[in-house]
Amino acid sequence: MGNTRYVLEDFVPLSKSHLWKLGISFYDRKGPKSWTEGGVPNFITSNTYIAKAYSKMLRGFLDDCRSDQSEVHLDDSKPLYIIELGAGLGKFSFHFFTAIMDMLQNESSFPFKNIVYVMTDFTDSNFNAWQTHPSLQKFFASGQLDAAIFNAVEHKSITLHRSKVVLSTASVVNPVVIVANYLFAALCSDIFHIQRGVLKEGLVSTGSTLNESADPLNPAIIERLSNQYRYKATTASYYNHEEGEEANWRWMLTWYLDHFSASSAASDATVMIPVGAIRALRRLTALSSQRSLVLSGDKGNSGLESFKGLFDVDLSVDGSFSVMVNFHAISLWFASQGGYWVLDPHEHSYLLVNAFVLDPPLKKQNHQEKLPSCTSTACQRDRLERMNRQMEVLSNRSVSLFPNLLQAFEDYTVKFSPNDYLEVYKTLFAFHNPSLDTLTSALRFADWDTDLLNTYSLPLLKLSKDLNHRTQKVLKEGMQLAWKNYFCSETNIDVVAEIGRFYIKIGDFDSAAEKYEFFIKLQPDSYVGLNNLGICYMEMDRREEAMELFQKALQLAPDFEDPKYWLEILNEEAMDGYDDEWDDL
């Protein structure tokens, strides 16, 4: 009984299988809870460091576009659109937009001012959540943040929700910047085996350990998957319905076939082709006549050693499921278009960050020439050498055309990557009885990340007693940065109250009141929050409002002593002798 397998779908190419419908169903039904409750990781691609890294690469790209030798021109009178695919919870959008606005406001030499950031997702539930999200409202109001429902694989245009602008080849004048974090791993892929010089397509039969006929799109099926694979011979002309780009796909598969059949590295191999990612990029880059920068962070591989051997698809289940992204294949697609690429060299990292550029003024004749048919290893070897020379020309050209982008990539991905940041960040949660200097150094490294701050809020508050002026100034500046970087979610609301408590400790009641007012909007029945906001109002000489808050706190928690004490003081108008009570908050 335990070995029973129920077939959901017979054998089909992987990219057309029922699996991807299950993944879509998971995000569609869960919405924002995919990240807060569904187990999907988000911090690694939604923190201030990766946002800063992307903003520096954006700056480098724009500086390169402004150079005299650039063939990508910018029109200051028209917007430059940054399109984020699969924005999900919206946390990365918040951090990246914040980093961009900081550069716009603080760097007079920033090369382009008219930027519009577009959050997109395929599901209404995420899109609707953004419209009322407290951390995004001021950005939407500025007109420089917009949003759209967009299916990266199917849709060919994007209609912006607030401005009503339709992004298309007719309306997009400047290059587009495309951002895709932890998205490509969830889009459809194909699998191929190269075995003894023969290219074989992978077919999958989706199955489950339970009978799922009642709800074949139930996301819980993902935990019960029982898939089977088989492989059959095919050719490099496998993709024959790609909107006129069939030659580019043939170029890509031919490269893999020749490399693993005829080069010195010949070996049986398994190659994933990120079909959904490439088709999405094809449609999006077409909006700007292919002039584009793509920044993508995802789990994946780019080193050819990882392809050696014959194996089936490795599905990683994390609420939904994902597969490893073949960024090398994406670089081959860009090469076939005459584009450029720079790949994360940290092959074994959990997250790879990669950059790709299309520069359409570069003529593509070298990349569109007809590849000869080969029946011998010598012919394949010659054909591969020709393709590699074409890629080398492109790589060398990118060094001269995009030096600032490449330097930013070197600084923020090669020397110290977002994955490196995550590894160090995780160690910061393991301190025992840290000193104040240790805590401030850790928080400074993490840009006063609010999750880290929340973890150490109690020791930090205890250590904050009797601070000298210099240390108080450091902590106050840090708390201001933490507040600026705070993205509200169901799992981190308490940190708002902790920041408010710090400001009460140092006697900055205006700042504390701002935090508790925000906190009470999110947690209107928090009697502790009401009490502490009442303290702020009392110190700000807003006594009637303070009394109302203390009374409401008592209604919610009749045994709570603090509001009784403050009401007694207010009623007696005896406002002396409670300066040292803040240590008990």
Set down the secondary structure blueprint:
Elements: E1 6-7, E2 12-13, H1 19-30, H2 33-36, H3 48-66, E3 80-85, H4 91-106, E4 115-121, H5 124-131, H6 137-142, E5 145-149, E6 158-159, E7 166-167, E8 176-181, E9 190-195, E10 198-205, E11 207-208, E12 228-233, H7 246-262, E13 269-273, H8 275-286, E14 292-298, E15 300-301, E16 316-318, E17 320-322, E18 325-326, H9 327-336, E19 340-342, E20 352-358, H10 365-368, H11 377-401, H12 403-414, H13 418-427, H14 436-445, H15 450-455, H16 457-463, H17 469-484, H18 494-505, H19 509-522, H20 527-539, H21 543-556, H22 561-572
Parallel strand pairs: 3-4, 3-8, 4-5, 8-14, 15-18
Antiparallel strand pairs: 1-11, 2-10, 6-7, 9-10, 9-13, 10-12, 14-20, 16-17, 19-20
Helix pairs in contact: 3-4, 3-12, 7-9, 7-11, 17-18, 18-19, 19-20, 20-21, 20-22, 21-22
Would you write up a description of this structure?
A seven-stranded mixed sheet has the order 5-4-3-8-14-20-19, sandwiched between helices. Strands 2, 9, 10, 12 and 13 form a five-stranded antiparallel sheet that branches. The N and C termini lie far apart (58 Å). The radius of gyration is 28 Å and the shape is globular. It has 585 residues and is α/β, with parallel strands linked by helices. 44% of the residues lie in helices and 15% in strands.
